[in-house]
Every structure is written in C-alpha cells, then in structure tokens.
Design a protein that fits this description.
The complex is a heterodimer of chains A (112) and B (112). Chain A is an all-beta fold and 112 residues long. Chain A has strands at residues 4-7, 10-13, 19-25, 31-38, 42-51, 54-57, 64-70, 73-78, 87-94, 102-103, 107-111. Chain B has strands at 3-5, 9-13, 18-25, 29-37, 44-49, 53-57, 60-65, 70-75, 84-94, 97-102, 106-111. In chain B, the strands form 2 sheets. In chain B, strands 2, 4, 5, 9, 10 and 11 form a 6-stranded mixed sheet that branches. Classes of the chains: A mainly beta (112), B mainly beta (112). Chains A and B meet through strand 4, strand 5, strand 9 and strand 10 of A and strand 5, strand 9 and strand 10 of B.
C-alpha cells in the first residue's frame, strides 16, 4: 500500500458543486500539504498543516478549505467548484525538519 | 515571498550529460531540493543541499552555491527513463516554519 493515499484519483464535477478530496498517510508524519499543479506553473501550495490543530493558508487558498481530521488525514474541499479549478492536486507529507516531502499519486479534477 | 527560476525544457541524447539550473530568491533560505516527476505521477525526492558544494547520488548530482542563490541538478549517462519533469524546491523559513516551495519545473526530453 502507498504511504500517502489520495482519493479519488480522478473526478469530473459540475460547476457550483461541492467536492472533497481526501488524503491519508501511514508515515506518521505531522506535517501535511495540499498542492495544485497546472501545466507550466509547477506545484503551488494551497494549504498546509503542522498538526491536527494547525491550519495555514498557502499561496492560492481562495476557493478552497481544508480539514485535518486526524494526524493521518487531511482533506481539501472546493465549496463551489469552478472550471479554473481544473487541475492535478497533490497531497504531501513531511516530518518536522525533514528535507524530503512524500507525495500521493494525485487527484485529477475536472470541473465542467 | 519566494521565487525560483528554472528552464522550461531541456533536451539531450541518451548517454549524454545534462545540467538543469535553478536560481532562487527567498528570505531565510534553508536548503534546496530536487524532485522528479514522470507524466503527472507523484513527484519523488532526488536530493537536498543545505551547504555549498556537490552532492552525488549515483548518476545524479546536485550542486548549491548559497552566495549566488543558485543550484543545479546534473544527470549523467542519460537514459530514456530519465525523460521527466524536474523541480527545484527551496526550504525556507516562512512565518517561522519550514515550507517547501517549488519552481515551475523543467521538462527533460531524452532522445535516442
């Protein structure tokens, strides 16, 4: 099993719908991140969390919200999806001052 | 804020050596990482430099010059499977914490 698991892997949704992307990890890391990837724009940080009670906005948090339900689970929600939120979304984890981030396999979201 | 610059695309032939450069601007710089991503899959960690100099890991090496805010990834004995996107990422002290911030990525195309 993967250390960082994202569900769903692919999703097509309609404009205006609420959608949740889920991430769970078995690495025991305290830090979790949500990134968005668009062609030519790299990985941009949406939200991050350093523990269950800690939630922080990243570079592009508008239109998104998150929930850290447990140390191992970090969910990303789009309250009212819009077409320009069509992208590849990655969850990642790291451990304290670790130099390495571990990524999930990604969720490809299409908003029509 | 942070900014990272890397070429959008690099091409090379199998067996050759290629260098992917990365320049960065950030406050509270802590270190520079490199990640590899195949065809929209999960980015995977390659290397990390906190101090000036060259770090070698098999066919891959990474270099850092803190005074020049510059680093590079060197790939030797290129193989077709090295065709992928490569991202540099800085770890910097944002708001008192260490957050990985990624560049836009360099697409490496290896020709036979």
């Amino acid at each position: 099993d993967a250390d960082v698991t994202q569900t769903p892997r692919n999703r097509i949704t309609k404009t205006g719908k609420r959608i949740m992307l889920e991430c769970s990890q078995t690495k025991g890391h305290d830090r979790m991140y949500w990134y968005r990837q668009d062609p030519g724009l790299g990985l941009r940080l949406i939200y991050y969390s350093f523990d269950v009670k800690d939630i922080n906005k990243g570079e592009i948090s508008d239109g998104y919200s998150v929930s850290r339900q447990a140390q191992a689970k970090f969910s990303l929600s789009l309250e009212s999806a819009i077409p320009n939120q069509t992208a590849l979304y990655f969850c990642a984890t790291s451990d304290g001052l670790s130099t390495e981030a571990f990524f999930g396999q990604g969720t490809r979201l299409t908003v029509v | 804020g942070q900014s990272l610059e890397q070429p959008s695309e690099v091409t090379a032939v199998e067996g050759a050596i290629v260098q992917i450069n990365c320049t960065y601007q950030t406050s509270g710089f802590y270190g520079l990482s490199w990640y590899q991503q195949h065809d929209g899959g999960a980015p995977t960690f390659l290397s990390y430099n906190a101090l000036d100099g060259l770090e070698e890991t098999g066919r891959f090496s990474s270099f850092l010059s803190r005074s020049d805010s510059y680093g590079y990834l060197l790939l030797q004995e290129l193989q077709m499977k090295d065709s992928a996107s490569y991202f540099c990422a800085v770890r910097d002290r944002t708001g008192g914490s260490y957050i990985p911030t990624f560049g836009r990525g360099t697409s490496l195309i290896v020709h036979p």
